[in-house]
């Protein structure tokens, strides 16, 4: 039972480089989301999706793009990496019952450093 | 503007005693609250939740209390065990047209259980 799988686990980028953080879940969850965790800031929502073809912005969306072409996958794209994007990134998914997103299942995270 | 606040960055408790973790929120529209537990190098895992229509919810050793008038919730762990040593995040969401699709997290409290 894989749950939520994130790749890569670690990544170092140079300023201006682009990359995609991958996230896949095998629980048939409709809801998927990306968070970043920074010291003293807790977890902040970047983007989320309530189903294939539907995405929306969270609290800190600037500098990130997402798409949701399948139920299983929700990649996060950094088009031009900046040192301020150095963080630990978590993907999470959940059942989406009408009117309530229930508990989130998180991946193990991607540690990203931008030099 | 931190809408969910965990004012104690760390807490140490003797094994077998009660651990009390606190969380305050400012947004009166929040109507669903959750606690997550996080070990190093892992993603957060769901612990317990409470709806605003309740003031208490229990699950084994874990109890969450909600005081809506004070905009305060707390997590009680009794008895505390060494495996409870982790970072605990409080989270809250408000109902939108779709549902509670955005979780706002606090900054976390590191709990250390002393054997």
Overview of the molecule:
The complex is a heterodimer of chains A (115) and B (115). With 115 residues, chain A is mainly β. Chain A has strands at 4-7, 10-13, 19-25, 31-38, 42-51, 54-57, 64-66, 76-78, 87-94, 96-97, 100-101, 105-106, 110-114. In chain A, strands 2, 4, 5, 6, 9, 12 and 13 form a 7-stranded mixed sheet that branches. In chain A, a hairpin with a 2-residue loop joins strand 5 (42-51) and strand 6. The model of chain A has no long low-confidence stretch (mean pLDDT 92). Helices cover 0% and strands 55% of the residues of chain B. Chain B has strands at 4-5, 10-14, 19-25, 30-38, 45-51, 56-59, 62-67, 72-77, 86-94, 104-105, 109-114. In chain B, strands 2, 4, 5, 9, 10 and 11 form a 6-stranded mixed sheet that branches. A 5-stranded antiparallel sheet of chain B has the order 1-3-8-7-6, with no helix packed on it. In chain B, a hairpin with a 6-residue loop joins strand 4 and strand 5. The model of chain B has no long low-confidence stretch (mean pLDDT 93). The chains are: A mainly beta (115), B mainly beta (115). At the A-B interface, strand 5, strand 10, strand 11 and strand 12 of A face strand 4, strand 5, strand 9 and strand 10 of B.
